[in-house]
Amino acid sequence: MVDQKKYDGRYLLRLLEYGAFEKRPRGGWRFGAKVIGEPVVEGLLASGLVEIIGSQLKLKTLSKKARRERRARNERPAAQFPSLE
After folding, report:
1. pTM above 0.70, yes or no
2. Which of 8, 1, 2, 10 is nearest to 49 (CA)?
3. Helices (H) and strands (E) in the chain, counts
4. 74, 41 in Cβ contact below 8 A?
5. C-alpha 5, offset from chain centre
6. At residue 51, what are phi and psi to the nearest 5 degrees?
7. pLDDT in tens, 50-70
8. Element (H or E) spanning 59, and its range?
9. In 3-state terms, what secondary structure has residue 35?
10. Pair 50, 62: CB distance under 8 Å
11. Nearest CA-CA partner of 40 in 4, 70, 1
């Protein structure tokens, strides 16, 4: 039975930190007993953070520069408060 929950990409990326997803013979991917659908994996692939190696989906190894740039893009700008003067 396929789990019909809508997974957040961050949740699945966290799972990938613990281990790779395995390709299922009937389609889709699995992490242990958890089944992940093809559309979700396609979204992760489109983000550029994961790659398929053989029959496994793994996190890409990013260079230090790429990690820094990615962190910089994800930072929120500081809140701008009006001055009290």
Report:
1. no
2. 10
3. 3, 5
4. no
5. 16
6. -145, 155
7. 899 999 999 887 667 766 776
8. strand 56-59
9. strand
10. no
11. 4
